[in-house]
Amino acid sequence: MHAEHQDIGVSQVAAAIAEPARTKILCSLMDGHARTSTELAAVAEVSASTASAHLAKLKDLALVRLHVQGRHRYYSLADKRVAQALEALMVIGQSAEPTFKPQTPDRLQFARTCYDHMAGTLAVLLHDRLIDAGWLLETDEQAYRLSDSGEALFAGLGIEVQDLSTLRRKFACPCLDWSMRRPHLGGSLGAALLQTALKRKWVTQDLDSRALALTAVGRKEIGVRFGVELPGEVKIKGSQPAATPTGVGYNRTV
Hints:
Radius of gyration: 20 Å
Helix content: 40-55%
Distance between the termini: 33 Å
Number of domains: 2
C-alpha cells in the first residue's frame, strides 16, 4: 500500500509539472527569486485568476512556498529538492530558465534600510555568506541561530549576542527582500549588524532617504571579515567606482 501511495504521489507531481503554465511558473522560480502571482501570471501568459489556481495547486503539492511580507504575497520554490528535480528535467528537455530583472532604482537596490536592518544586494550577499560559511544556521523556515564560529564572528564586531537573544523579538530570521526577491537578515541580529555598519562607517545614510552608501572602509572590512565579493561595478563613497568579478552570489537556489 505504501508503494501504491508513492506511485500516486509521483503521478500527481508529474501531472502538476506537465501543465505548460505551471511549468513556466516553476522554471521562472529556478533562479531563487520569489515572485508575486501577478508576475507569475505574466510569465505563464495566463490571467491572474488562472495563475492563482495554478499556484494553489503547486502549493498543495509542496512544490512552491508562500511568503507573506506585509501586504505583499510572494511565491518561491518550496525547497532544494524541487529545484534539483526541475534541473534534472531541464537537462532532459534542454530547457533554459528565465532570468529575473529587478526594476528597483540602482541606489536603493544595492543597499538600503528595511525597518531597522539592512536590505538590498549587499544585505542579500551578506545573508548568503553567513549561511554558506556556517555562521548562521536554520532552525526552521522562519528562524536562525548562530553557530559557535558565528557567535565569535559577531563578538569580534562588538555585538553582544546573548543580550540580543533576551529581547522580545525574533533573534534572527529571513526577511524577503522586495528588490532581490531573496532573503536578507532580519531580527535583532540584523538590526545590530546595521547599527555596527553605521557606527564603523562601513555604510552611510542620507537623512532624507533609506538608501545606504557603501564606503571604501566598508568595502574593505566586509571583504576581509565576511569574505563577500561585490558583483559588477559598485560606486563606493569616497573613492572611484571599482570593478569586481560579476555573477557572484546570485544563483543560490532556495
